[in-house]
Amino acid sequence: MTHPEQAGTQPPYPPGGLTVRDTVTDGIRVLSLAGEIDHHSGPALHQALNDSDAFRPRVILELSRVSFMDSSGINILLAAHHTQTEAGGWLRLAAPATAVKRTLDLVGADTVIDCRTTLHQALV
């Protein structure tokens, strides 16, 4: 399978921005993110997570193409985790890139939010 970034048709993530692709797999909402999660792009993630038309109690954030996340991103993830838990569901993080995994580890978010190595592991 050729990825668009390998074919040279688009960059691997939007420079200084965030894209969110929203899909459903086996009744689980999967938000595939690409780019940076910071105080500029955080509102887009917050809006995607809180989209009442797409709400499902089980949500996975696929993070393999997220190159950077600051404290505002961590706060959005923790709030989403709380919201999902209150609704009787869960939030899982899947395949965080090395820099993002390091940030999650440093602040201890990985001890609060279930973090899986791959999307497949997060789906089971």
Compact overview of the structure:
The chain has 124 residues and is α/β, with parallel strands linked by helices. Helices cover 35% and strands 31% of the residues.
Keyword list:
five-stranded mixed sheet; disordered N terminus; alpha/beta; globular; 31% strand; 35% helix; 124 residues; 5 helices
Polypeptide structure, described:
It is a single chain. The chain is of the alpha/beta class and 124 residues long. Helix content is 35%, strand content 31%. The protein is built from 5 helices and 5 strands. The protein has helices spanning 4-7, 42-49, 71-86, 98-107, 119-123; strands at 18-25, 28-37, 58-69, 90-94, 114-116. Helix 2 runs parallel beside helix 3 (71-86). The longest helix is centred in the middle third of the chain and has 16 residues, at 71-86. The protein starts with a helix and ends with a helix. The relative contact order is 0.16. The model is unreliable at 1-13 (pLDDT under 50).
Share in helix: 25-40%
Please give the radius of gyration in angstroms: 14 Å
Mean pLDDT: 89
Overall, the morphology is: globular
Content of β-strand: 25-35%
Order of helices and strands: HEEHEHEHEH
> What structural category characterises the helix and strand content?
alpha/beta
How are the strands ordered across the major sheet? 1-2-3-4-5
**What are the low-pLDDT stretches, counting only 5+ consecutive residues below 50?**
1-13
* Beta strand count: 5
Determine the number of helices (DSSP H or I, runs of at least 4 residues).
5
| Main pleated sheet | 5 strands, mixed
Distance between the termini: 24 Å
